[in-house]
Write a structure and sequence with these properties.
heterodimer; A: 249 residues; alpha+beta; 13-stranded antiparallel β-sheet; 21% helix; B: 404 residues; six-stranded mixed barrel; two-stranded antiparallel sheet; 15 helices
């Protein structure tokens, strides 16, 4: 038995560094995700959508618990005021006061633009589950940043062929995320800047999404987070379909 | 010449068989090409006329990058320019947008398109595809004309309400409740399952799309001169816009049809080669059975050239007669089915894949094509008699006379 056990030990010892290395990378991404999501979060956001011809500003309020439940209400402009969105796990509903209707957004519409911005419906639903759907590999590490490559797991039904994430060591927050399709073409780039303290948490207050597809030349969406409360109590009452209409006005 | 004629009369069996074979083959060729051309023309005409139209004007980059950044932003100005161009029967502006439809619990993505109802009737088959309810008219408000498959999927009928949410032309949020005014079926499944129409004035209001369009569709007075017209319009409206005929818009379909024709002709070619070999062998046999006769002719002083001339003349006369008979026969059949299109009830499903809404296919009755086919057959059948004739001419008279 003895030699056998020694063999096992050697095998384990040789495997150990590799697994722990992979774990470390996955752990890193999980940490980044936690930092971005918080246990709960309540925020006021301003979204500026710039296209070739025009610029539009929207204001909204959001409530979220972890990354499974979130509720968004549009506050401005007046004509869109009261439109609400509810996300539960991987599903999304929308309530539009003008037509007095709650609509479940079908899977086929998930890649459509959200409120005319450069974010898709899918971004609102999926963005958060990166650590579950992708396998992580550290590409580079400098004094103040990591660069991680995320490739979709075999089973994962995901949109992206590859994601490259740059992470600041200071805050363990992403600074830049680049999204590629299956052919390896850069589709869009998201930058997180202006990290500010909110209670004990540091959070990027400016998000800039720039699509890189030729047909979206000149498009840009900027999200500014004006005030945010993390890890406070958030009422569960927001996260039901009835809430969509109830909190609409 | 006389002798050739006399020989044709004398060798009745050969004459009848050759004429029969050649004329039937010619008839087959004439009819098959009429059928192929006819079905292709029908498919294209259908595909073009149901919705896309003969000529489309779009923003220069719209076809490659179909986004709201590449719209036609001044539809009225282009209309004015079009008014000065001759050869345009009618034009209609369209604004296509992708929206989310919702009725009851159901929600589906689809196209919502603003159209000019009256102009549209003259350049597409939308109005003619009405299945129930009514077609749109100018000035309609939130009344929608919807594809039957889309209506089925949303579980709505005429008079029912559907809601939509989408993006206006300025990327702002757009939503409204619509009432089903009419349901159409073009037979193009994808189209019927995804598309609904609104009258343009109302569409412009709710989608912030005043004077904008994704397409202006032009119906030429003479559809066969569409290429020329597209060029003329292109020059008039300037480089910010593209003016393209259906040949470009539907290049895929045109290519598919050409490929299909090519395969058709290859198949025909194989059949012809077989038939021509039969003719050749038959000529060979008859000519061989006449070796002694030819030997005698040679012995009494006819030159090989004259014999050759005589035999070829025989062949050519026979071929000419057969080709004319065959051409007439094939032409008649083609003409008959041109007037009385072949209907293929029961094959509608397959046709739908080709975007063919009707199952009646007229053959193309084109005299030029028929004459072309006749000429091809004539040349081929004369060629097929050449080998045996050349071969027999190589015999020397004495040899030939002794030949059994």
């Amino acid at each position: 038995m003895r030699p056998h056990r020694t063999g096992m030990m050697i095998l384990l010892l040789t495997l150990l560094p590799i697994t722990s290395f992979a774990d470390e990378a996955a752990e890193l991404i999980r940490k980044v995700e936690d930092n971005l999501n918080g246990k709960t979060a309540t925020m006021t956001l301003t979204m500026v959508v710039k296209t070739k011809r025009a610029e539009r500003t929207m204001k909204m309020q959001s409530w979220a618990i972890g990354n499974d439940k979130s509720f968004i209400k549009i506050l401005y402009p007046g004509k869109d005021k009261g439109i609400t969105f509810l996300k539960l796990d991987n599903s999304m509903w929308q309530y539009v006061p003008r037509i007095e209707k709650t609509i479940k957004i079908p899977a086929s519409m998930m890649l459509q633009s959200w409120m005319g911005s450069d974010f898709s419906n899918d971004d609102l639903v999926r963005e958060s589950s990166i650590s579950e759907d992708y396998t992580v590999k550290l590409l580079d590490e400098t004094d103040d940043a990591f660069t991680a490559e995320l490739l979709p797991g075999e089973e994962a039904a995901v949109v992206w062929g590859k994601i490259i994430m740059e992470i600041s060591k200071q805050y363990y927050l992403p600074t830049k995320i680049r999204y590629f399709d299956e052919e390896g073409t850069l589709i869009r780039e998201m930058a997180y800047t202006e990290v500010k303290p909110f209670g004990e948490r540091f959070y990027p207050t400016e998000w800039i999404m720039e699509p890189k597809e030729p047909e979206k030349e000149g498009h840009r969406t900027l999200i500014q987070i004006s005030d945010a409360v993390f890890d406070d109590q958030v009422s569960e009452s927001y996260f039901t379909k009835r809430a969509l209409k109830r909190y609409s006005d | 010449m006389k002798m050739a004629l006399r020989n044709i009369a004398a060798y009745k069996k050969r004459t009848i068989v050759t004429v029969l074979l050649t004329s039937l083959t010619t008839a087959l060729l004439v009819f098959t090409s009429a059928w192929m051309d006819g079905s292709h023309q029908t498919m294209i005409k259908n595909a073009v006329e149901i919705y896309p139209g003969y000529l489309q004007i779009t923003g220069r980059e719209f076809r490659d990058k179909p986004s709201y950044d590449h719209l036609i932003f001044d539809t009225a100005a282009i209309r004015e320019k079009l008014a000065r161009i001759e050869g345009i029967a009618v034009s209609a502006a369209r604004f296509e947008s992708f929206v989310l439809y919702s009725a009851g619990e159901k929600a589906l993505g689809g196209m919502l398109t603003g159209i000019e109802p009256e102009q549209e009737t003259r350049l597409s088959r939308l109005a003619a595809s009405l299945q129930s309810g009514e077609y749109l008219e100018a000035g309609d408000t939130n009344q929608v004309y919807i594809g039957n498959e889309l209506a089925k999927r949303l579980k709505v009928g005429v008079g029912d309400e559907i809601a939509f949410v989408g993006s206006g032309a300025d990327y702002s949020f757009a939503a409204d409740n619509l009432r089903v005014k009419g349901i159409f079926q073009t037979g193009l499944y994808e189209f019927d399952a995804s598309t609904a129409f609104l009258a343009r004035e109302y569409f412009e209001q709710i989608m912030a799309a005043e004077n904008y369009a994704t397409h202006i569709i032009v119906m030429p007075e003479k559809p066969e001169q569409v290429e020329e017209l597209a060029g003329k319009i292109g020059r008039a409206i300037g480089p910010d816009y593209a003016s393209e005929s259906w040949l470009q818009i539907m290049a895929e379909l045109v290519k598919a049809m050409q490929l299909d024709s090519l395969f058709g002709y290859i198949t025909l070619g194989v059949i012809f080669i077989v038939i021509l070999f039969v003719i050749m062998i038959y000529t060979l046999l008859t000519v061989y059975s006449r070796i002694r006769e030819i030997g005698v002719l040679r012995a009494i002083g006819t030159t090989p050239k004259q014999v050759f001339g005589m035999l070829v003349l025989e062949g050519a006369l026979l071929a000419a007669v057969s080709v004319v008979i065959g051409g007439l026969l094939g032409g008649m059949i083609a003409y008959y089915f041109h007037i009385n299109p072949i209907t293929m009830a029961g094959f509608e499903e397959q046709f739908k894949q080709y975007g063919l809404a009707v199952s009646a296919i007229p053959t193309a009755f084109q005299p030029v094509t028929i004459v072309r086919d006749m000429l091809v057959m004539f040349i081929l059948s004369v060629l097929s008699t050449l080998y045996p004739i050349l071969k027999i001419n190589r015999y020397r008279p004495v040899e030939a006379m002794r030949h059994v």
